[in-house]
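Checklist before submission:
- one chain only
- standard amino acids only
- sequence pasted in full

Submission:
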Amino acid sequence: MFDKKESRLRRAKSARAKIAELKAVRLTVFRSNGHIYAQVIDASGSRVLASASTAEKVIREASPKVVGKAAATEIGKRVAERAKLVGVETVAFDRSGFKYHGRVKALAEAAREAGLKF
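Returned file contents:
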């Protein structure tokens, strides 16, 4: 029987294989109990083009009480702005096996509103 983490990683593996097959730049999300992280990774998978997370000092100092969906929305906006600065407009969304729900969904919708296409 698989545990929760193994099941999530199995789902993530198949999604990443499809994204690699498409040779697309990907917006990948990782969420822990305390933080949420987003990275824009190039098509080869070897270079991070842009990133944002709630663990960044600037974000923790600016709004230490912002947690949950509000924090995910802020991270979505920031990663989209940073991706556009390096010339990335279109990405494939890699949710890392997490359900498209809650914080992951909030981050994705905020990135779309900020101008990323996926």
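Reviewer check: Residues 27 and 40 are 4 Å apart (CA to CA).
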